[in-house]
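Below is our example:
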Amino acid sequence: MPSGLFALLDDISALVKASAASLDDVPTQVAKTTGKVSGIVIDDTAVTPKYVVGLDPSRELAIIYQIAKKSLINKLLLLTPAALLLGYFAPWAITPILMVGGAYLCFEGYEKVHSLFSHPDGDTKQEQVIEITPQELEKQRVGSAVRTDIILSAEIMAIAYSQVNGQALVNQIVVMVAVAVFITLAVYGFVGLIVKADDIGLHLADPQHSPATQKIGRGIVKFMPHFLNWLGYIGTAAMLWVGAEIIAHGLPFTAHALHALEQSLSSMPVLAWFAKALVLAMAGLVIGFIIEKLVGLVKRAF
């Protein structure tokens, strides 16, 4: 009996040592995964500020906090368990689910582009302003932001899972949780800095500061509205190209075509990136247009 107990303790000790050795590599795996999803993280950062622009400035940080909190909850309690369960029981289902999310991004991106070029009747515009309260508008913006975020987050967590697939379960969970927390804090911390930059500029422009500091502050205040405006366009384009890229990677033919495009311009990395982004954005517009028409047909039918 004592020898059996000692053997069991030896096995437990070996297991603990193996787990510890595996966990030692977590920072490296988190850094590697973050590098893999950097493009999606940038897109997420570009998309989010447009949901805050135009709302009460005193509510900006509170709104970002709401979105960030729901994003983190979704990553930790929904997407991480879903990725682990699907990866174990039905790995074939991950790509189609992501493609459905990509189609939604294309649809939403197309609607944003369509609204830029449509000219609604003036009375209708007035009606919309009267019918919705600031609280309802804030709720709508938060809901829309969370829906977009969950698709981008799903892609992030799927990539994170692909980096740890085949490792010990504890290691998979620790890496994915670390990625979820780090990326959420990074994205929404930076978004908060962007939307409050004008307040920082006003503070620097205060007469109590030196003339050089005041000049910088006034420059920030003048620059930020233009920056946020362009960031809104970039965010819409990002929704289109990320959505189309998710779909393209799920189809062997289009995945190979994208790879061939990148390879043909490999000597000019910046041009290759712009060419790929432009092709995907145009494809996203086409996909969004088709989905919008299908949604319209279904609405009319039912």
